[in-house]
Structure formats: C-alpha cells, structure tokens
Amino acid sequence: MRQTRGVPNTHPRQSEFSFRVDTRLGSTLGRTGTITTPHGEIKTPAFIAVGTKATVKALLPESVRDLGAQAVLANAYHLYLQPGPEILDEAGGLGKFMNWSGPTFTDSGGFQVMSLGSGFKKVIDMQGVSSHEHGDDAVAPGKERLAHVDEDGVWFKSHLTGDKHRFSPEISMNVQHQIGADIMFAFDELTTLQNSRAYQEESLERTRRWAERCVAEHFRLTEERSHRPYQALFGVIQGAQYEDLRRKACRDLGAMPFDGFGIGGALEKENLGTIVGWCSEELPEDKPRHLLGISEPDDIFAAIEAGADTFDCVSPTRVARNSAFYTAEGRFNLSGAKYRRDWGPLQEGCDCYTCQHYSRAYIRHLYKAKELLSHTLISIHNERFVVRMVDGARTSIEDGTFWDFKEETLGRYYSR
Length: 416
Hints:
Blueprint (H helix, E strand, L loop, with lengths): L17 E7 L6 E7 L2 E5 L1 E5 L10 H6 L5 E3 L1 H6 L3 H7 L2 H5 L5 E3 L4 H8 L12 H4 L12 E3 L4 E4 L6 E4 L1 H11 L3 E3 L11 H28 L7 E6 L5 H12 L5 E4 L8 H11 L6 E4 L4 H9 L4 E4 L1 H6 L3 E4 L2 E4 L19 H5 L2 H9 L4 H27 L2 H12 L3
Parallel strand pairs: 4-5, 4-14, 5-6, 6-10, 10-11, 11-12, 12-13, 13-14
Antiparallel strand pairs: 1-2, 2-3, 7-8, 8-9, 15-16
Helix pairs in contact: 3-7, 7-8, 8-9, 9-10, 10-11, 11-15, 14-15, 15-16
C-alpha cells in the first residue's frame, strides 16, 4: 500500500478484522466472500438489516436473528441525538445495548448532510429541479435547509428539538467509537444530482480530506480504547454519476488504510450497476464493498454482478408499515379488499414465522384496526424475503447457477 500524505499506513489491530474472497462469478466482478469481525462472520453477498435507532423497527432482535439476518446497521446521527453515544458506550456498545450478539455497522452521519441539507432523496427525479436554475444550494420544494457544510464539517439542526449541532470527521469518529459497531463509515459529504460538476469536484476533494482526518482520528481512538474490540473503518466513495470522479475517489481512498469501502452518493437507478462496476474495478480486491441504501431485487442483482458484497436499506420495514408485502410475483398491498377473506399466508412456501402462523386476512384486519402487530408480522416477512433472496444469490454463485437463479427470480418478481 502506498503512503498517503498525512495518513498512517496501517494499525496493528486491523488484523482483528478481515475479508477473503471465496468464489468468483465467472468473468464478472461478482464474488462471494467472508467478512470476519470481533462479533462473528458475515457470508457475502449479504443483506444487512437496518436498525436505525438500535432497533429494526417493530422487531425483536431475536426475530431479526431467526429470519436469517447476519448483521444490523444503525444510524450514528440518530443515536447521537438520542440517547447519546455515551449511553451506548456505558452499555458496552451497540450490540450489548440492543441485545444483538452478531456483527454491527454504523453509518457516519454524512447522509444527513444531504437529506437534511436539501431534502432530496438518494435516487432523484431529475425533472423539475436543476442546478442551473437553483445553483448548488438547491433545496427540495417545501423543505428548509437545516445543514450547512464548510471545510471543517457540518452545522445542522436537530430534527427533534431544533438545537444546533456540529459534525466533523473527528466528531463522527468519536461518536461512532462510542457507539461501538464492528464496522463504521468515514464522514463524507453526500451531494445531490442537482449539484453542478464544479461543485461535485469541490465536494469530492473535501470528502478526500475528511477521509484522511477520519483515518487519523480512528487510529488515535483505537489506541486510546484498547479495552474495546477493534472497529473497522470503511471509506465512502462519492462522485455522483461521473465516471472520472468515481474512479478518482476509489484511487484516492483506496490508497488509504481503510478496512473496506462504502459506495454511496446520489445516482439514478439505471446507472447503479455501471457505477458499482467502476468502483469495483478500482478498489482493492481484498477489501469488502458495501452499497448503501439498496434493496430492490433488480438493483441487488445488478450490484452483485458488479462486485458489491453487502447492502442495507430501510425499505423492507418501511413499506411494511404501509401494509406492503413482498412475494415472488412482486410487491402487493394488503389493505386491498380482496384480502379480507384470504386465509393463505403472505407468500405460499415462505419459511418465515409470519407465513407459518398467520393469514393475510388476519394481518389485514390488524392493519385496518391500526394494531401495531401488523407492522411486526409484515416486517418479519419482508426482511426474510430480501435476506433469503440475497442468500440464494450467494448460494447460486457458489454452485454455478447464478444466471438461472437471477432470470427466474427477476422474471417472476417483475412479471406483472
């Protein structure tokens, strides 16, 4: 590894975290692998359940384990605001705090730079808003700018109280070390597709400088907190939809002693696989790649082929709270009247606890009666659906049937 100015080469404790490639997907960039953390292994590709506030919404940690999730990801921004990182540190870290014994992830809070700052979502409708019309300070219609970026970090207002707070690379590292997840992400600036090319370049350089500061602070805290298990640090790749910027970010951060990498940033769905492929071609082969915020079946398969190893998304539980459930034939909404006397499970043949014990008619009743148990039962099924699909993709790579598995899975899911 070549030395990056101002960044230490490695830390001795990095050997407590590892990744190996197990099987390759033909001539593609896809692969299976094994991530080893102080709290267990993650067989990849893997879907990581999102437990934003140290809980996968509506689910017991025991239920998350039983449905097959190998790891959970929590949100550093939300846990910073409530209950506060010092509380998790006193509890012995995120896993002990929430009674989860497996591997854990935390994001850096960088996503809030964009989501609070402009109100735009990750995958953005490019019609109606333009950087040429609104400049690089564009805000989504009806939204207030709550975050302001400078070279040192970000000022933002709490969405809970309106109080003003400060995040910087050093603060993010301190917060995440206190939260205590096995895998953390470096603090980055997430731009929107509305930002100009010039701003994307400026932001990319700022994220690179922040990455150097994150590594330095991470290594300092690793020494200071030697009584805690080693926490891996992933760099975050930005660059929007520009190939040269994505590749530059990969080369710059790939030369730093990160334990793995997160592929983030604003992008359009149709370019997802291409962008992940650019990154996989440039990033170190022996380090894992996490794609942030993805759960749709076609996106997952495109990302796996392009070399992504792990994924996370809130969608399975979020749509469950609106009565939407996944099946092999696509996503359906349980609120429809046709389910009132439907005594079948959410998905015939599904092995999840919900489908083994409850009918569509009963779960629909719960939803219509505004009983929270409907959220739990649909969330169990939806999380199991995505976990099982990604597990199936991993198995199919190992046994050489990936292309048949992909064709059958996507053909059925998008058949209507």
